[in-house]
């Protein structure tokens, strides 16, 4: 039976609202290339209403309903959201799979992570009250000082299409836990599950205006959100190019931003590894989520002593990856998200070949799939440091390869990038792994694995991969400001100025 995409409107002030211009954007199933529904297209007028609703939500009852309510109050709503997501896990995973092409098993895993993330930030919200008025030791006995942690205010959250609901949750859960009110703008390429999050919020009775969800195009909805004077912060996940534009817009009002941007992460494989274990992690690091991960370890740097054997074995692992419709049992590689991405990835592969690189595995559409935006797992060798395939993010199932002979050379190759999101090292020598981990210029390092991610641990990059950290306590701090409160406690006058005479 075909999965029905619910027809939704924009979610503003706790209600479904038709977009001002009444425009809608078609949803294309990337596995079939067929239209399966549509989403509302928000514009600046809708952003205005959403920001106004968020402002009112913060001010309601002088903030006591949400922003300055006890953390336990907000935690109750976050846990209710988590419970609903868990109840609807199977349905939401199927919607995610047909919307963005993600294999169903991955989408199910994502839904578990979504619920887990809301639960985790519910716990942190409850813990916030005990942290208030934390005293600070100061060197003068005539004063006492403490710190208040307060929500930053109204936040704009702009999220990508590769993990539609999970990336939204990474921002929504901590923002709400902190006491902010939010406007979520998911990618127009995959918004279906974010609109279902709106329905969940409506069902559990989340106070109106606390979370508003606007689907639409970046230039029509994302841009007016980023530069809106009544939005206090923007958190963005997406391309480095768009991130730069968001930062420029926010800079006009000296508005804080946190950016999680592109990557070209290395995986360094030494010659003492178990070949099969290392090959599987190498494949997983680039072909999981159809290769569409900002942290994908898309540059393999392998020791020259094992390079030929390792690449032969890796190619065998790749041929064993089941490429199919995401809903088919056992699917491990689905289609990329859109025709535009499909064409862009194939162009990267053809440019690599024209620059002198060699495609040793994959590189085209799988022969058994005539429809859909499918690209085979691709391995490219004979790569030089100046080639586009080595320097630019493909955001698809494409791995480029270079060899090394010394540890220092491996580190130099690993850090030879404008990006700095993730990096992996595989070796049985754990002291070497420690040295290499310290030398990597990246925000996330994996030892003898690639891509594991936990809600409790910080996530974010260096260099052009952005700044700020999501997840863990760091994710909550993203949405809070710190207020210093200092009190003079002596009965004595201050005595700095000569006292005027008393008549």
From TrEMBL:
Catalysed reactions listed for this entry: 3-aminopropanal + NAD(+) + H2O = beta-alanine + NADH + 2 H(+); 4-aminobutanal + NAD(+) + H2O = 4-aminobutanoate + NADH + 2 H(+)
UniProt function note: Dehydrogenase that catalyzes the oxidation of several aminoaldehydes. Metabolizes and detoxifies aldehyde products of polyamine degradation to non-toxic amino acids. Catalyzes the oxidation of 4-aminobutanal and 3-aminopropanal to 4-aminobutanoate and beta-alanine, respectively.
Protein name, as recorded: aminobutyraldehyde dehydrogenase
GO biological process terms, semicolon-separated: cellular detoxification of aldehyde
Keywords, ordered alphabetically: NAD, Oxidoreductase, Sodium
Keyword Nucleus listed: no
Enzyme Commission number, as recorded: 1.2.1.19
Classification via PANTHER family: BETAINE ALDEHYDE DEHYDROGENASE, BETAINE ALDEHYDE DEHYDROGENASE-RELATED
Gene Ontology molecular-function annotations: aminobutyraldehyde dehydrogenase (NAD+) activity
Pfam families: Aldedh
Assigned protein family: Belongs to the aldehyde dehydrogenase family.
Residue ranges constituting the Aldehyde dehydrogenase domain according to the UniProt record: 18-485
């Amino acid at each position: 039976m075909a999965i029905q995409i619910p027809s939704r409107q924009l979610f503003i002030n706790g209600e479904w609202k038709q977009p001002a211009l009444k425009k809608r954007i078609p949803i294309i199933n990337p596995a079939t290339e067929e239209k399966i529904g549509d989403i509302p297209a928000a514009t600046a007028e809708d952003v205005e209403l959403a920001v106004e609703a968020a402002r009112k939500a913060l001010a309601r009852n002088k903030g006591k309903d949400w922003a300055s309510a006890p953390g336990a109050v907000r935690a109750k709503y976050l846990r209710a959201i988590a419970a609903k997501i868990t109840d609807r896990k199977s349905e939401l995973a199927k919607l995610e799979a047909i919307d963005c092409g993600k294999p169903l098993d991955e989408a199910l895993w994502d839904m578990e992570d979504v619920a887990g993330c809301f639960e985790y930030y519910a716990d942190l919200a409850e813990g916030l009250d005990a942290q208030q008025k934390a005293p600070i030791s100061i060197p003068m006995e005539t004063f006492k000082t403490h710190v208040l942690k307060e929500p930053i205010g109204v936040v704009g959250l702009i999220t990508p299409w590769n993990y539609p609901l999970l990336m939204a949750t990474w921002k929504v859960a901590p923002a709400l836990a902190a006491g902010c009110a939010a406007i979520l703008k998911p990618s127009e390429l995959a918004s279906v599950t974010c609109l279902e999050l709106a329905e969940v919020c409506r069902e559990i009775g989340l106070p109106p205006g606390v979370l508003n969800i606007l689907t639409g195009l970046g230039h029509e909805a994302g841009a007016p959100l980023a530069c809106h004077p009544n939005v206090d912060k923007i958190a963005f996940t997406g391309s480095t190019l768009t991130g730069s534009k968001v930062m420029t817009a926010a800079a006009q009002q000296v508005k804080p931003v946190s950016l999680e941007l592109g990557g070209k992460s290395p995986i360094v494989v030494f010659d003492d590894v178990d070949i099969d274990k290392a090959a599987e992690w190498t494949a997983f690091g680039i072909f999981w989520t159809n290769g569409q991960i900002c942290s994908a370890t898309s540059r393999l740097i392998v020791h020259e002593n094992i390079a030929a054997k390792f690449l032969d074995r890796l190619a065998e692992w790749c041929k064993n990856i089941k490429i199919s419709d995401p809903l088919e049992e056992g699917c491990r590689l689905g289609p990329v998200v859109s025709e535009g991405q499909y064409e862009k990835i194939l162009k990267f592969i053809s440019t690599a070949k024209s620059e002198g690189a060699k495609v040793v595995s994959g590189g085209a559409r799988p022969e058994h799939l005539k429809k859909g935006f499918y690209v085979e797992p691709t391995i490219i060798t004979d790569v030089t440091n100046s080639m586009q395939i080595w320097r630019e993010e493909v955001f698809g199932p494409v791995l480029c390869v270079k060899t090394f002979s010394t540890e220092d050379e491996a580190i130099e190759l690993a850090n030879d990038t404008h990006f700095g999101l993730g990096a992996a090292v595989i070796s049985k020598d754990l002291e070497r792994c420690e040295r290499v981990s310290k030398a990597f210029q990246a925000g996330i390092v994996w030892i003898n694995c690639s891509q594991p991610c936990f809600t409790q641990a910080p996530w974010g990059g260096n260099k052009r991969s952005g700044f700020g950290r999501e997840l863990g306590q760091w994710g909550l701090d993203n949405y809070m400001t710190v207020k210093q409160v200092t009190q003079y406690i002596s009965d004595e006058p201050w005595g700095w100025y000569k006292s005027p005479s008393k008549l």
